[in-house]
Every structure is written in C-alpha cells, then in structure tokens.
C-alpha cells in the first residue's frame, strides 16, 4: 500500500472514530415538512376516524385529512358550552438500529408534538406522558431496544391535554389549534459516558464560561474545550479534570481579539467539548455561540456590548398554509430574510419556542430574538411549567441571538417560573413579561401592549424602560406601517424607549383540507400580518422598510437650489456609514405610451461613503454631473456590507406642469372646437369627440369618442367631496380659441371646463376649506367592471394612507385590475384599489378605451374605486363620493384595536390626525380619451401586450 493510500485509510478510520465518539442520529420521521416519512395512523374522531391509515410525519394531522379544525378562540365565538374536539391519534412505526449501537445510551427525541404524548417502545412505556406541544423532549430507551430485529414505536397523541393548565396556556388562544407530531422524531446514540447539554456564557470581553452537564461518568477523567473561529482556526482552549460521578463541570477561560456578535455583526464561534480517558477520546459535542454581553440598565435602556439598542421587531408565528406549524429551514430562512429586508433587527417568537433551524438562522444572519414560553393569556401550572422551562432553555440557551426569555404572554405569567430560567441559562439572560395591562413592568422593562401614541409618550417619561412586545396590530391593512413613523421617532428620541415588536409578521391563513384547499384566516381573527400566508408583501412591508432604514434620509423633494448634498442620519447601533455603499442613477421615465421598462438610465455614479458614526448625522455628496437637471428622476440606492439593499430613494426632477406640456406636445393633430346647447346640456365638440356638461350642475354627463356614438362611461364629476354643489351660475365662452364652460357655486367653489384643439379636455377647479377633514378634492364615476389595468407616473406600486406614505417610490407603475382585500383571498398584491400618492398622470385601460388624466399642480392623490382599510360591521375609513377621485388630502388609517364609529385615529400620533385644512385649493386636470386598439374590427377588444411593472 502506498504512503498516500495509508494516509487515506487512516483519515477514513479517524472520521469513523470521530463519528462514533459523537452523538449518532437516526431519523424515524422525516427531517421536516418537505421531507417526511409515512407511518401507520389511527384517528379517534372527525375525518377518516376509526380505521388504520397512513400519515406523513412530521405533519399536522388536519393537513393530512384527519380529524377536525378548531381555532383557539372558538370558545369565545360559540359560547361557554363550546367544546374542543378532544381527538386522539395513534401512530405506529417499525424501525431497526445498527448493532454498533450496542452498549450505547439510546434516546428517542421528539422536537414537538401536539399535545399530550405517550410513547411506547416494543409495548413498554418509554416514560411519563409528555404534556406541552412546543418543546423538545426525550426518553432513554436503551433497555427497550431489541438488536437484530425490528422494533415497534407506538405513539398516542391527544390534541387536548389532560392537564387543564396546558390547555389554558396553549389551546385557548388566538391561533389555530392543531394536532399531531409536527416536528421531527429521531434516535440519538452516544457513549454511556457523555455530555447531556452545555450552557455557554461568552461575554464581550472575551470571557468564555460553560456549564457542562455530564452523564454516566465512571472512567473519563478529563474535559477539554476548544474554541474555533468562523474559519475553523483554534483561538483558545482549556481543560479540567473530572471525577467519577461528576454531573456538572464549570469551565472558564478568556481569549483575545474576539469578534462580537450583534444583529449587525453576527460573528459566530464554535466550541468543541471533548471527554477523554487518559488522552483517549470517549465523547465529543459541538456548539455554535457568540461573544456578547446583555445589560439592562434600569431607568436607562437595553445594552448589547456596552451600546444601547432599540428593537425594530415583529411577532412571528411558526406557520405555513399547507402544513400549519410543521415547517422547514427554507421557510425559516425566507422569514428571517424578509424580516431583515424590512430593516428590522428583532423578532419575538410568539407564542412559543420556534423550531431549531429558525434560531440557527437568526444567529447566523443577525436578529435579536425574544424566546417565549407558551401562555397566551393563561399560565401553566408550576409543576408542568418547570419542566417546560427546562426543556426550552436547555435546547436554546447557547443561541447568541436570544436576548430575552419571555415568561408567557398577556397574563399567562406564572411568577413561580421567573427564577427557573437562570437554573439552565448560565448567561442569566433577562426574563420579561409580555403583558397587556399597565403597571406590570418586570426586571425594569415595561412591555405593555397596544398603547396609543400619547400614552406611549407618558410611559416613556416614567421610571421604566418601555419595550412593547405587541403594538400597532396589523389586522387587514391597519397598523403595521400605519402610524409607525411617529411611534418610532418617539422611541428613537426617548432615553427609555427600547423600540418594540409589531403584531404581526404573517397572516395565519390555513389551507383547509375539508374545504377544497381554500385558505382560511378565520374571519377577522388571523389576517394580522404585514405579509400574506405565502409571504405576499403588503404595503406596510415597504413602509416599515423605509421607516426602519438605518440610513435615514428625510429629503422628500429636491429644493430648487439642490447641489447634490443630502443630509443623512446613521441609525445603526454598531456600523459606520463608511461600510455602506451608495450609488445614484439619473433616469428618464417612459411615457404612458411605452410598453418597455419604466425608465431609461441616462447616467450612473458611485458615491464616496461618508464616515458617520452610529447615531450621528452628516452629509452624502452625490457629485452629480453639471447637466443633472436635464433628466427626469434621481435614484439613490444604499447597500450594506453584506451586499443587501438597505433602501432606494427616488426624486422627480421635472414638475408636473413640465410633464403635462410634454404630454400635450406629443399630440400633434389639431381640430376645431365648438359648442352646441340644448335645454339641459352644453356639448363641447372636437373632431369626433363630444363632451356633455350639465347646465344644472356643471358636471360631465357623457363622453362620446367617435361618430358611431362609441362612449366611455366616465361622468358625474367633478363632485367636491366636501360641502354641497348648489350652482349659482354657468356660462360658455371662447378663450384663446379654446371652448370653455365656467360653473360657479353658492359656497364659492368654481370649475372651468376647457376643450383644446388637440382633443384634450381640461378641468380647472377651486374650492376653499377651513377645519378638519378626512379628505379633500373632487370625484367622478366610472364602472369598475370595465377597467382592465391602471398605469401611472407617481409613487407606487402600493396604495397609501395619510399616515403610511412611506415605502412607495416615484416611477412608472402598472397594476392589473384585482379585487384584493388586504389580508384576505386572493392575496394579489399590490392591491388595485386605494389611494395612490404623488400622481403626475394616470392611464386606465378599459373595455371602452383608454382614459388618461394628469395634473399640472404637485402632490395629487388618486383614489381608485371602493376599498376599506379595516373591515367590520362597516368598513372604514369612510370613502369620498364617486369612485375615482383626484384629491389634495386623504385619510389616515387606524388599527382594529383603535376602531370606533367615528374612525378616531388622532391618538395614534400627529400623522394620524385628520387633515387640518385652511385656505383655497386650485388644481388643473387634463383628460385625454382614446379608443381601444381594436386590430380586426370583428374581434373583441383585448388588453395590449404590456409588461406589468413590479417593485
């Protein structure tokens, strides 16, 4: 045998030896929701009850077609006599184990089973019935395994627990109640002398401590710990002697030049623990961890590594529509990436510990985590709770991402359990209470839920740190990003503001296998997310992204003397802005007649990143070319040190008046204009087009497009959305060879219609208001069913509210017609209907033809059709009259928890107050009506083949 062959064999033997020295894993189920295994299954009630079938494991049995569905709040919906389906599922599976496991300790591990779980191996009970759905538990089954033959695993899972406190804590809750073995099941084999678990405490000063919990120590006499960096370089080691019967050893030492873990710099290390007998390795285990120090300075703030931080957080259920709480690492990765895409730095695991892969991804990508013991609004008993705290903490203690333990939610706090966490967590993380009543601060942190802006302000002036673990409830389209800017500024600028956690990340829509696989959000109970069930992004997603951007730019419009210098604030906690890359683009937007991309890039440039320390302010100098004003748009993109886009800002460089002139000059044909009258109408004519104006009210009554009488049904406007329309006078006249009609109203409002030679119909209107208003402007009517799509130059592509203008950028956008109601089927985003911001022009493609409308003044909102932000007995906020509106002001949106009959949102902050209007408003609109592209006149109209622009 050659030298290299000998080396190869030696390496293989070493690899096998190392494998045998560590825990060996054999999955009995699949590894996740995407990779399952088939077991035998029997269900006690509901669908497929009473006979043996097959089921995929892990899974929720409802999603496999068994049993019945319950939502946790059904007991509220249906009254005190309601009873949950107390279903029982019996699982059976046969397995073999390798002969090499003889003499080893063999455990069977369940990562999660809903709820009471009884386990038998070869007919023998593995141990006491486990109670509690969301926790990893295991049994030593070494003496029950048969080698050389098949073994039989039998598992009895009861959906409802025999322990009332478990049901109170987990099942009587505001979420779907599901059953079954929903996380993996596996065997783990290790040497008789082994490490059961470790608890690491690694501080920012380089101190490493670990409690090493030992099993079966007889002959092992040495424990060695080695630390490795991300490149697998050994950076430190230490060892201690151990004696027969030892069950716990503390090992402690320090290393130099540590790279610290934060959500911005998620540096990880690896600790290798080795049990030796006279230099012979008996057992090894590994743990990833991070060096970081958590401090709660009472009356001050939350500190990581000596720096005060503020949580930009969100609540997350473990969820996927097809599989319920049985998920996989791809879903976990997607969710962490989406949360970080919103420029958030924190997540609360509501209302139970997540699966392990989620925490590993939070460690590696960087999110601060609040890990929570279940207890929705009621608590576990002390007896059960102590066991579950131990299971949660021993599983999760070494994740550097976990900053807090939460001992239950909204009254689900068993105070006897507060001291239990530190028994298993050597780092002694802070324990908090996520509560919903004032005066329940714990460990110096008040987490009170759903305070309004002004009560938040009062709490921040009190003695405690304030970190709401739920706020701005995002049911339907409310909450989430609406009002968030005001709340965030309050926390950012307050000494005791620690940020908080929005409710919630995703709509908990469940694919109902009993209703033809429709997605069900249980009416108003579960559509609480800023993304949909399959992570469809709502408008709040983008608003949050801008509001929470660590590169804060407040410049809304470019001043006339703009010189390329932009003020910027660094809202990172640990990152200098010289680590951020900036790039600008000068662009020209495509006209409404284009079917290509939304803009042409004329020139690009990279910016020298300024050195601005965390929480400090400075400037970015774009160094634009001298002819930059010749373009139509300026785009600036910030990218972080990991290559991820932080945010992109856009500014328009041309006024709407200039844009309207460009539009007019594109119509080169001119026609004579005239007017005819009858008893009720003025009829303006140009070429084949006719526009009828009512003599009694001055409103547009009809639009005829050709000699055949082809109509477009845009009419009955402009109706002023506030006040009355009592006409005082109306007349027609020529002005500069254009035909005009002027209508004046008794309240001082005025409109002028003007028909130009190029076929453009102009509307000039004036109105005055003094007071508080939800909206202001004018409306028209058009049949919604005729509309095919909308295309516009303005902010988009999502609709906005007065208190959620953030997140939408100036561009050419196009949305296909849809009837999406935010948070409900069919989750087609962006929603077609709504208020749209800063529109320069809008084009509707309809079954009757094209309708184009533009404005010569700035800052016009367009309202498209009927929609509501929050749905209840009545939708709210109330809408203007008509169904297409051109507005100078739009309403704010509240939250479901702030709902009242008057849509009172003022307590959510300055942005959420009604519009305080005082003065005269003037606007010029121009309309162009065109026939559809018919092609063959014998064919029905078809939509033009245009690209649908997306964000």
From TrEMBL:
GO terms for molecular function: beta-galactosidase activity; carbohydrate binding. GO terms for biological process: lactose catabolic process. PROSITE patterns: GLYCOSYL_HYDROL_F2_1. One of its GO terms (cellular component) is beta-galactosidase complex. Its cofactor is Ca(2+). Residues 53-187 form the Glycosyl hydrolases family 2 sugar binding domain. This is Beta-galactosidase.
């Amino acid at each position: 045998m050659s030298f290299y062959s000998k080396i190869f064999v030696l390496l293989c033997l070493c690899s096998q030896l190392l494998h045998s020295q560590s825990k060996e894993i054999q999955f009995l189920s699949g590894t996740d929701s995407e990779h399952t295994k088939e077991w035998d299954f029997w269900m006690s009630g509901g669908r497929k009850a009473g006979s043996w079938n097959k089921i995929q494991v892990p899974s929720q049995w409802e999603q496999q077609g068994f049993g019945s569905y319950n939502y946790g709040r059904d007991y509220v919906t249906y009254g005190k006599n309601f009873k949950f389906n107390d279903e029982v599922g019996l699982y059976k599976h046969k397995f073999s184990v390798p002969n090499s496991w003889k003499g080893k300790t063999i455990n069977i591990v369940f990562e999660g089973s809903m709820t009471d779980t009884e386990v038998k191996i070869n007919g023998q009970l593995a141990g006491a019935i486990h109670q509690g759905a969301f926790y990893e538990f295991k049994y030593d089954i070494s003496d029950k395994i048969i080698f050389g033959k098949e073994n039989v695993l039998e598992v009895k899972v009861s959906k409802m627990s025999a322990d009332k406190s478990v049901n109170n804590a987990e099942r009587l809750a505001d979420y779907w109640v599901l059953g079954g073995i929903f996380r993996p099941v596996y065997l783990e084999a290790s040497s008789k002398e082994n490490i059961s678990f470790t608890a690491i405490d690694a501080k920012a000063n380089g101190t490493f401590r670990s409690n090493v919990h030992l099993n079966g120590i007889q002959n092992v006499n040495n424990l060695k710990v080695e630390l490795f960096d991300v490149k697998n370089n050994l950076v430190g080691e230490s060892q201690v002697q151990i004696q027969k019967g030892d069950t716990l050893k503390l090992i402690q030492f320090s290393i130099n030049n540590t790279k610290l873990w934060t959500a911005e710099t998620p540096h990880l290390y690896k600790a290798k623990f080795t049990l030796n007998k006279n230099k012979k390795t008996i057992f090894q285990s590994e743990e990833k961890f991070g060096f970081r120090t958590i401090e709660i300075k009472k009356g001050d703030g939350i500190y990581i590594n000596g720096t005060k931080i503020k949580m930009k957080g969100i609540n997350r259920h473990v969820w996927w529509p097809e599989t319920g709480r049985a998920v996989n690492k791809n879903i976990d990765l997607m969710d962490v990436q989406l949360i970080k895409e919103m420029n958030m730095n924190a997540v609360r695991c509501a209302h139970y510990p997540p699966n392990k892969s989620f925490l590993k991804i939070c460690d590696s990508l960087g999110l601060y985590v609040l890990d929570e013991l279940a207890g929705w609004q009621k608590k576990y008993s002390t007896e059960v709770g102590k066991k579950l705290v131990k299971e949660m903490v021993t599983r999760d203690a070494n994740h550097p991402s976990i900053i807090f333990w939460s001992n239950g939610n909204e009254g689900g706090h068993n105070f006897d359990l507060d001291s239990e966490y530190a028994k298993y967590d050597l780092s002694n993380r802070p324990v908090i209470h996520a509560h919903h009543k004032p005066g329940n601060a714990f460990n110096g942190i008040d987490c009170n839920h759903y305070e309004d802006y002004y009560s938040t302000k009062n709490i921040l002036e009190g003695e405690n740190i304030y970190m709401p673990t739920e706020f701005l409830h995002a049911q339907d389209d409310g909450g989430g990003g609406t009002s968030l800017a005001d709340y965030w500024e309050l926390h950012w600028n307050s000494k005791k503001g620690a940020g908080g956690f929005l409710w919630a990340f995703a709509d908990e829509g469940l694919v109902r296998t009993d209703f033809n696989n429709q997605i069900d959000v249980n009416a108003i109970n579960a559509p609480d997310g800023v993304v949909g069930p399959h992570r469809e992004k709502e408008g709040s997603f983008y608003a949050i992204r801008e509001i929470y951007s660590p590169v804060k730019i407040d410049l809304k419009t470019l001043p006339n003397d703009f010189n390329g210098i932009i003020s910027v604030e660094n809202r990172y906690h640990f990152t200098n802005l010289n680590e951020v890359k900036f790039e600008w683009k000068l662009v020209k937007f495509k006209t409404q007649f284009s079917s290509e991309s939304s803009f042409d890039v004329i020139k690009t440039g990279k910016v020298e990143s300024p050195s601005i320390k965390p929480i400090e302010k400075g400037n970015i100098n774009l160094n634009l070319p001298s002819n930059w004003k010749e373009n139509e748009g300026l785009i600036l993109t910030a990218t972080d040190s990991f290559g991820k886009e932080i945010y992109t800002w856009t500014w328009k460089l041309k006024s709407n008046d200039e844009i309207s002139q460009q539009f007019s000059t594109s119509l080169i044909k001119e026609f004579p204009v005239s007017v005819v009258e009858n008893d009720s109408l003025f009829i303006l004519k140009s070429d084949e087009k006719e526009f009828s104006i009512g003599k009694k009210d001055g409103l547009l009554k009809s639009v005829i497009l050709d000699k055949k009488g082809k109509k477009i049904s845009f009419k009955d406007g402009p109706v002023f959305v506030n006040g009355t329309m009592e006409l005082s006078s109306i007349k027609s006249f020529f002005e500069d060879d254009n035909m005009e009609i002027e209508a004046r109203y008794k309240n001082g409002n005025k409109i002028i219609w003007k028909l130009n030679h190029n076929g453009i119909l102009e509307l000039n209107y004036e109105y005055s208001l003094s007071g508080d208003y939800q909206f202001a402007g004018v409306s028209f009517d058009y049949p919604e069913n005729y509309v095919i799509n909308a295309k516009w130059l303005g902010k988009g592509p999502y609709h906005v509210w007065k208190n959620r203008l953030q997140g939408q950028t100036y561009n050419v956008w196009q949305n296909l017609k849809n009837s999406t109601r935010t948070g409900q089927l069919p989750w087609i985003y962006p929603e077609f209907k709504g208020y749209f911001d800063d529109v320069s022009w809008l084009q509707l493609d309809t079954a009757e033809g094209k309708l184009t409308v533009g404005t010569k003044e700035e800052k016009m909102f367009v309202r498209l059709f009927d929609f509501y932000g929050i749905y209840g007995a009545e939708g709210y906020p109330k809408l203007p009259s008509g169904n297409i509106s051109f507005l100078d002001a739009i309403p704010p949106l509240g939250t479901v928890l702030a709902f009242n009959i008057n849509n009172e949102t003022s307590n959510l902050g300055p942005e959420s107050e009604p519009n305080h209007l005082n003065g005269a408003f003037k606007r010029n609109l121009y309309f162009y009506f065109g026939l559809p592209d018919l092609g063959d006149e014998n064919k029905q109209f078809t939509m033009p083949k245009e690209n649908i622009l997306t964000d």
